[in-house]
Amino acid sequence: MSNTSPEHIAALIERVGRLLSTEAHAEGLLPVQWEALRYLHKANRFSRTAAALTAYLGLTKGTVSQTLKALESKGLVKKQIDLKDRRSKHLSLSTKGKRLLQRDPLEVTVAAINELGSSSQRALNRSLESLLALRLAAQDRQPFGQCRDCRYFADRHPEGDPHFCQLLHEKLAAADAQAICYEQLPR
Ligand code: SF4
């Protein structure tokens, strides 16, 4: 009979995490730099800031600032002044950054998950989402879930494009529904 004790499961997660972290020393980047690139790729326009990235990673401001400086100096990330609030800066991936993400070391694990088959993938997804939610809530951290699962998401709203955010009062495009957001609150 397989060992399903919480201790065993926690040890398995730790080992998978160690594999991911070792493999993420790739293409001259550190694991945290890859995480920042992935975040900027999947975050919506309200969440592509240094403060939101800091909250997502759960690291200090100084570490995130060093990470962003390194990515900027490699030409992978761009910073732009927010025209509505000139004190804040928006981050985005450069074309070089987007191209590099196509060689993301995480793809090895994505391929392994693909081999598990759809019912195992659904079960793993459910369990890991629940575990992550519990751990983040215990530390009072934001979930950064997908926009379409947010309580403020209005699907095909008359003022939308086609969707609408009822918290920020902003139009949302179809692609925004899949993006993750700093302000997201699950329904
Ligand atoms: S609906 Fe929620 S997740 Fe989407 S932009 Fe608004 S606050 Fe963010």
Summarize this, please?
The protein is mainly alpha-helical.
Distance between the amino and carboxyl termini:
38 Å
Question: Could you describe the largest sheet, including whether it forms a barrel?
Answer: 3 strands, antiparallel
Can you list the ligands bound to this structure? iron/sulfur cluster
Can you name the CATH architecture of the domain at 25-104?
Orthogonal Bundle
CATH topology of the domain at 25-104: Arc Repressor Mutant, subunit A
Please estimate the helix content: 40-55%
Instruction: Let me know the number of strands.
Output: 5
Q: CATH superfamily name of the domain at 25-104?
A: Winged helix-like DNA-binding domain superfamily/Winged helix DNA-binding domain
CATH class category of the domain at 25-104:
Mainly Alpha
**Helices and strands, in N-to-C order?**
HHHHEEHHHEEE
What is the 3D shape? globular
Number of helices: 7
Mean residue pLDDT: 96
List keywords for this structure.
7 helices; two-stranded antiparallel ribbon; 187 residues; Arc Repressor Mutant, subunit A; mainly alpha; 47% helix; binds iron/sulfur cluster; three-stranded antiparallel β-sheet
How do the helices and strands line up, and which of them pair or pack?
Blueprint: H1 6-23, H2 31-42, H3 50-57, H4 61-73, E1 77-81, E2 89-93, H5 95-101, H6 107-114, H7 118-138, E3 153-154, E4 163-165, E5 170-172
Antiparallel strand pairs: 1-2, 3-4, 4-5
Bound molecules: iron/sulfur cluster.
Iron/sulfur cluster binds at residues 44, 46, 147, 150, 152-153, 165, 167-168, 181, 183-184.
